[in-house]
Amino acid sequence: ILKEQEMASLPVPSVQAMVAATGGADVSPRYLRPAEAVAGDGEAQIPVIDYQRLLLELELDRCGEESARLHRACLDWGFFQLINHSVPDDVVEGMKANIQQFFQLPAETKKLFAQERGQLEGYGQLFVVSEDQKLDWADMLYLYTQPPESRNTKFWPDQPVNFRSTLDRYSGAVKEIADSLLATMAENLGLKQEVIADRCVGGVQSVRMNYYPPCAQADKVIGFSPHSDADLLTLVLQVNHVQGLQIKRNGSWFPVRPVEGALIVNIGDIFEIFTNGRYRSIEHRAVVDPKEERLSSAAFHSPNIDATIGPLKELTADEDEAYKTVDHENFMRLFFATKLEGKSFLDRMKLK
Length: 352
Known about the structure:
The chain is an alpha+beta fold and about 350 residues long. Helices cover about 30% and strands about 20% of the residues.
């Protein structure tokens, strides 16, 4: 496992540097892939959930219309947009500005926070497990943010000057949202809140900030390879106006049109395993624009590192378990040491 994890940090060329040198017209074969059809814009959009209504129902200890809407979204889509959330406007705008400013820094400055061999954190790319695999048309900054004692601040940029303080505030705000969502989801599944909440005391949160440069051959490259997230819940912030998130639905790629001010939330593999397949993680990818850069930020929320990852006993008393049970640390090591390829990682977690 450790050898595979080290391979995940193989050095790869910086997409930004290559684009700056070539203008994006000449693309290395390592980035070129066959194009896939995308569903038309006439398709229905992913569900929209009102967070304040959800909180009110949670406080009143009753499952109302918004809770039911959330349950249907988790069962039918695995994705939803969360409006009227509780992240302060100044924190959201601060995150957007800091992410944009960081990726505009000179390459030499960004390299001060570069990933080290065998490490996941820092500036660079993830899921590079061989010298000949296809690469994503993106650069990213990946950081562990919760619990606070897990932070390795050597990888936290000190430019822009308020980057660290803003990320700290954003991290706490989205964790609070994730905890509230998980509480409602537990009740929707007929569980006591603490069944999931107890596993998330001291839970792991990481944040991945993504920069997708424009590419003249945008239809032949991928910003982020098709995959499902390994966590419980992911909360995505759209940093600029350029769209690019697509989800796999009914065998086709379906573009997500972000609602102004919303967070995009999706179910992860651990939640699918916990629920024994009731809530399913959804394959998704990021595409790039031929003329404009795209930026986003994803906050991943997982149980604490001592938790066991497997179907919850409270949900499998009268049914067979469909997934293996493993410790959380090895689950995550294996995920990051694996090439992103749809839901192939989760498929290996299924019992035959």
